Amino acid sequence: MKKLILASTMLVALTQAADARDIVVALSSDLRSNDPGVNRDGNTDAIMMHMMEGLVGYTENGAVKPLLAKSVSMSEDGLTYTFDLRDDVTFHNGDKMTADDVVWNMNRYMNPDNKWRCLPDFDGSRVVKLTGIEKADDDTVTMTIAQPSAVFLGLMARPECGFTGMLSPKSVGDDGSFVAPIGTGPFKWDTWKKGEYVHLIKNDAYVSPENDGKPDGTVGAKAPLVEGVKFMVVPDAATVKAGIQSGALDLAEVSPDLMPEFKDRDDSKLIVAVNNGKNLFYMQTRDPVIANPGVRRAMAMALDLPQLVAAASNGTGKANCSMIATNSIYYSETQQKCLPYDIEAAKKELKEAGYNGEPITIIANRRGNVPSYPAAIIAQAMMQQAGLNVQIEVLDYATQVERRRSGNYQVISQSVSPRLDPALMMSFYVGDKDENTSLMWENPKAVELLDAAYRETDQDKRQQIFDDFHTLMLADMPGLFMYDMVDIWAAAKGLEGAPVWQGNPRVWEITVD
């Protein structure tokens, strides 16, 4: 009864919010911090994306393009990047953005006292060592790195980094403490009522980067076409459903099992959007039972992957056994190859590997917005047909994550959030398990290919690296990639545009009746 009363109260609040006719978006949790890239999560990134912009941004297909920069050039040795800034960018307070502002922002991000989440990606701890940030003139900034890197610009564009967004120095008080974000994006900071909502207002002075008239990732056309956006904290699925169907909410992510509730209605519609995240089975290559690649290949060949994906995704997903998403510029003909569904071949692999029916446990969780449990159940039934003794262990999500990070598992059914450059996705799985027990694959050749993918900047040569990586992965099968993540959103019938990108609501270039 208490839950019903709370849901009813929330719905009344939603209806009142909708009277102002901003676009109203439901998020499952509150903003964690309004300081870009600090104390963040996915919902925080989604809000910050509407206010914050970096020098570069990601396109729909994972390429990196200039955003606040007019152009970016790299020196022949790959160590110096020159950013020519656009001359039509102003902060939300009306101040023109200059090279001094860029230098101030980058020095602030690189200061450990400010606890930027992505500092280890740029201080040499992980991937890139940023060694110099200099103003060449009022419209030009140069940055130098210690070694050539194919992912330097991609790291800057990441949502997890707050997009390395450019803030007005007036976002910070005289004592150096953060006050509120004064960015450059299509919407401006207005109000944060903690636990209830964040309200942004339209930036009437916003100028989109050069574009073809369409939204394109975080670049492209970005005009704010509504007066404001209210991000409402609505964790209850029943309230989300009622809010969409009553018109109190304009946009909300819903779990796949609620899809029938929104089909063929006059007041709402469904939006199915693929992102670059992955649904996969991690395999512990050090486990005594599945250490033999033949056992892992047999597990893969026992799966009728299209059938599994159709069932686990409620018909919304498409089988993809590559680490690279189907909408990536690097998704080639090679990336489309999978081990064949072949029960007899799987049985032969198991016999040659000396498998004698030892139990194999798949760890899953029951979160409604991911296919962890249904994929595990379907895979169990399919693998048993090949003679694999597969069991399921259901854990809460936090415990499952801890088991993966500690390496204490045989197989884990998990979803991994988007990483738009394939090298960044590779780095989540590949490396020395003695140094990082959460990693999946320590094949020396795979590590060598990852290192090459970090260094090589030529797109054609990178394509070959990623194709070689996929071919090696099919032979070694350290993990079984099933399909790209699918986002299911419900929207008001009158909402027009492309309101979802990489799992985030994206409300520029959006109208609503």
From TrEMBL:
Pfam families assigned: SBP_bac_5
Any one GO CC term of the record: ATP-binding cassette (ABC) transporter complex
- Indicate the family of this protein: Belongs to the bacterial solute-binding protein 5 family.
State the signal peptide span: 1-20
**Main location (coarse class):** periplasm
List the GO biological process terms: peptide transport
From the Swiss-Prot or TrEMBL record, state where the protein is found. Answer: Periplasm
Q: Which Gene3D superfamilies match?
A: Dipeptide-binding Protein, Domain 1, Dipeptide-binding Protein, Domain 3, Periplasmic binding protein-like II
Q: Where is the Solute-binding protein family domain?
A: 64-428
InterPro entries membership: Peptide/Ni-bd (IPR030678), SBP_5 (IPR039424), SBP_5_dom (IPR000914)
Recorded GO MF terms: peptide transmembrane transporter activity
Q: Which PANTHER family does the record associate with it?
A: D,D-DIPEPTIDE-BINDING PERIPLASMIC PROTEIN DDPA-RELATED, PERIPLASMIC BINDING COMPONENT OF ABC TRANSPORTER
Q: Please state what the protein is called.
A: Peptide/nickel transport system substrate-binding protein
> What keywords appear on the UniProt entry?
Signal
